[in-house]
TrEMBL record:
GO terms of molecular function: ATP binding; protein serine/threonine kinase activity
EC annotation from Swiss-Prot or TrEMBL: 2.7.11.1
Keyword Nucleotide-binding annotated: yes
Domain Protein kinase, chain residue ranges per copy: 53-308
Compositional bias per record (Basic and acidic residues), positions renumbered to this chain: 323-334
Protein name: non-specific serine/threonine protein kinase
Keywords in alphabetical order: ATP-binding, Kinase, Nucleotide-binding, Serine/threonine-protein kinase, Transferase
Length: 363
């Protein structure tokens, strides 16, 4: 067995390094001196979390982090466990970005933003523990959405985005895969990994190299400064897909998609959906204007526009709330487990994991 951190070797059956407490891996998974991290992350996680938790499998593998489905063996409760793979945990910039997402989410309390149960580091794994979701918007678009369902989802995501914008945050990566659904079919905005905080020291809010090209705004693709209006564009791209079942722009390669965002005008959504109300077509096309100054300033301004436009208000009336989302924690239904708060207390999950690690080290 070999330490993933300091490379000391130990006898078979040893779980953790006696020098730095990092997880050990079987030398059999080493190939040409290189650790096959992709094949061992889940196995190491299982050793770290046992016996209190079991790892059911991988849910998602993003550009920075992986998300695993874990189950509490005592309560049979499922959770989503977002971790930095071990081969990325040694990069200070990646770790700082991951920890920054934890801090941002700990400050956000909204019924349509995914809360976190706990966050921290254990056995070289930087993690976020979150509620288990039932699916994402990407799959729903592929199956097809009815207009009423589209409007409900859009309204919920818009409310979450307005709250984030009012808090000084620009999400910068709004896309169907980052809109998730709980067991009650409510939409939740997820993945604030590259969000930009307006008053954050050292943050410039530039878009170069960030986001997903299919859903990114022109200014983001050009590497220019981005703000809430960039999120409006990305939400407009998602809304277009929901209304039509079609991508806004397609191409043989990412470069063609980028060029289309920069120079090509959108095909009117009514071309794909002849039953689309004209007021919705006007709305989505304004969200998709190339010049950010011609869009809505932020999600709050978009909410106010919907309420002030009779044709739109009639469509959204069943889902309408005051344009100004309440920011008091008391007005927000708490998650099944309390989210992380500013106070430096140890979360329930963190304490249980630390106890499990302690047992393994003294075994």
């Amino acid at each position: 067995m070999k330490c993933i951190s300091c490379n000391y070797e130990f006898g078979e059956g040893t779980l953790f390094c006696g020098v730095c407490s990092a997880p050990l891996v079987n030398l059999a998974v080493m190939e040409g001196g290189l650790l096959l991290i992709e094949d061992t992350n889940q196995a190491i996680l299982q050793r770290v979390l046992a016996p209190d938790y079991r790892v059911q499998g991988k849910l998602a593998d993003g550009g920075m982090a992986c998300v695993y489905h874990i189950v509490d063996n005592r309560t049979d409760e499922s959770m989503a466990f977002k971790v930095l793979p071990l081969d990325r945990a040694g990069d200070p910039e990646t770790v700082a970005q991951f920890e920054r997402e934890s801090r941002l989410l700990a400050e956000l309390f909204h019924p349509h933003i995914i809360p976190i149960y706990d966050a921290g580091e254990i056995a070289k794994f930087h993690y976020l523990a979150m509620p288990m979701m039932a699916g994402d918007l990407k799959k729903r678009i592929e199956k097809g959405l009815r207009l009423r369902e589209t409007l409900r989802i859009f309204h919920q995501v818009l409310g979450a985005l307005a709250y984030a914008h009012d808090s000084g945050l620009t999400h910068r990566d709004i896309k169907p895969a980052n809109i998730l659904f709980d067991e009650s079919d409510n939409a939740h905005l997820a993945d604030f990994g590259i969000a930009w905080l307006a008053d954050e020291a050292g943050a410039e809010g530039h878009g170069q190299g960030l986001g997903t090209p299919t859903y990114a705004s022109p200014e983001q693709l050009l590497g220019e400064k981005v703000g809430p209006a960039s999120d409006i564009y990305s939400l407009g791209v998602v809304f277009y897909e929901m209304l039509t079942g079609q991508r806004l722009f397609t191409g043989a390669n990412p470069k063609e998609v980028v060029l289309a965002h920069l120079h090509q005008e959108p095909t009117p959504p009514s071309h794909h959906n002849t039953n689309l109300p004209p007021s919705l077509e006007t709305l989505v096309l304004r969200m998709l204007t190339k010049n950010f100054e011609d869009r809505f300033l932020d999600a709050h301004a978009l909410q106010e526009h919907i309420q002030a436009t009779p044709e739109l208000y009639a469509l959204f009336e069943d889902f309408s709330k005051p344009a100004k989302e309440q920011r008091s924690d008391e007005d927000v239904p708490p998650p099944r487990r309390p989210p992380m708060v500013k106070a430096k207390r140890r979360g329930k999950l963190r304490g249980l994991i630390d106890m499990a690690l302690g047992r393994a080290l003294t075994a």
